[in-house]
Amino acid sequence: MTIIQLEYLLAVANYGSFSLAAEKCFVTQPSLSMQVKNLEEELGVIVLDRSKKPVLPTDAGLAVIRQAKEAVQAFAMVREVVSDLQNEISGTLRLGVIPTIAPYLLHRFIPDFVRKCPKVELQIREMMTGDIIRALDRDMLDAAIMAGGTSPEGIREEELFNDRFFAYVSTDHPLCQRSNIRIEDIDVRHLLLLSEGNCLRDQVIELCQAQKNIARQYSFESGSLETLMRIVDNTPNLITIIPEMVADYIDEKHRPQVKTLAKGAASRKITIAVRRTYVKRSLIDALKESVMNVARN
After folding, report:
1. Which of 38, 204, 282, 289 is the most buried (most CB within 10 A)?
2. What is the pTM of this model?
3. Most distant CA pair in the chain: distance in Å?
4. Domains of the chain
5. Rounded to an integer, what distance in angstroms lies between the CA atom of residue 163 and that of residue 73?
6. pLDDT below 70 — which residues of the chain?
7. pLDDT in the model for residue 214
8. Peptide bond before 111: cis, by omega within 30 degrees of 0?
């Protein structure tokens, strides 16, 4: 039994496909399949049900996979300990970022991180919160930058900074004449929301105490905050909620449409989420430092 065999087994379990697992592991499918088969023969059990689409673990396979995860993590920890002793930050960091953060934060901290950690291969994927949680659980991501309070048990969140909410209103909206807006003054019938699956949508609904099934004048929903703001720009009497990191990039022409929300708790916490068993501590610390450096500026 080898670490390679266990890594290939976990890849098939994660992706549900021998061909996709082989592609992600940068090996040929016959080579990967042979290693998994050799593992099954050595253990004397079938660990994967190949008749299922996607490929699923057998009952015995589930038990083996649990132990394989621990073994692979322990193996990675050996490298991490040696890197720490050598005072070197290296390896691969697979990072997920939610769509309401990625366009406004990635370009700000990546140059600093790459400069300080030249031996780290940074792999970034923009993903919805639910997909990030599943990817962390399946060891398909190492860490994620996301809104706090959305992770289940087994995932640890480390706070980075606070991201306040602002209202963005149409120029002819009655609230546009105010310097700040009370939450209770927002007519949710004219409130534009992100589409289902965006955690910011749920946070805005909770903030405005809006019912998910309330009748709205406009039922348009989008996965892009930029799209929502352009609709607000060109449609009378609309409003949407945006985070501070988005407000920072609004030009002078549209700056008067950004309104402070008169509520102290109107914000979200931006966090780094990792599995509780994650071993690449030095990588996470370096990432956290780079993000917090730009957040303070």
Report:
1. 204
2. 0.75
3. 74
4. 3-84 (1.10.10.10), 88-161+269-296 (3.40.190.10), 162-268 (3.40.190.10)
5. 33
6. 80-88, 210-221, 263-265, 277-279, 297
7. 57
8. no
